[in-house]
Amino acid sequence: HAAEPVDPPADPARDAALAVRLSPLPVEAANVRLDEAGFVIAAGNGVTDFAGFRDLARALGATPGASRVVCDAGALPRAMQVGASGTVLNADCYVAFGISGAPQHLQGIGTVEHVVAVNTDLHAAMIARADLAVVADAQAVLPALLARLGAEA
Questions:
Q1: Is there a domain that residue 69 lies in?
Q2: Range of 67's domain?
Q3: Staple partner for 126: which of 26, 65, 117, 132, CB 3.0–4.6 Å?
Q4: Entry pTM
Q5: Is 81 helix (H, G, I), strand (E, B) or coil?
């Protein structure tokens, strides 16, 4: 037996009712794995308000990360750790809040294209690595940036 193709009769109303609209599903950036994230913001020892940090990540559409010090202290989960002993990033953009830049952490961001660092220490390794450095208290910048984003929404 041989099967022969058959063209069904065209019925635009039926075809429209059966059509499935395909569109991207919204993804919460906090649920994206660090090694798959395109935009990551990370908290270091200079951050104390981790709820505010998570709010900023959400507002920016960024995946949250953390330094080893923050994860060791239990402030954020180990799965969020960036660095050689955590996750090596493939992100396009990385913003480090209050992270000095230990060698192991810098190994984790080696291939990131754009790095922004917010730190009070002008001589921190993360400031030297950054494409854009903000010499300021990360804990002061976080709520100010969140407020600015809220004002623009």
A1: yes
A2: 33-136
A3: 117
A4: 0.81
A5: strand
Query: Looking at the domain assignment, is residue 141 inside a domain?
Result: no
Sheet containing 63-66: order of strands: 63-66, 39-43, 93-97, 114-119, 132-135
Q: pLDDT tens digits, residue range 71-94?
A: 999 999 999 999 999 999 999 999
Give the count of domains, the chain: 1
**What pLDDT digit, counting tens, does each position of 88-147 carry?**
999 999 999 999 999 999 999 999 999 999 999 999 999 999 999 999 999 999 999 999
Instruction: Please report whether residue 46 resides in a domain.
Output: yes
Mapped onto helix, strand or coil, the DSSP state of residue 62 is coil
Cβ burial 93-131 (10 Å sphere, 16+ → b, else e): bbbbbbbbbbeebbebbeebeebbbbbbeeebbbbebbe
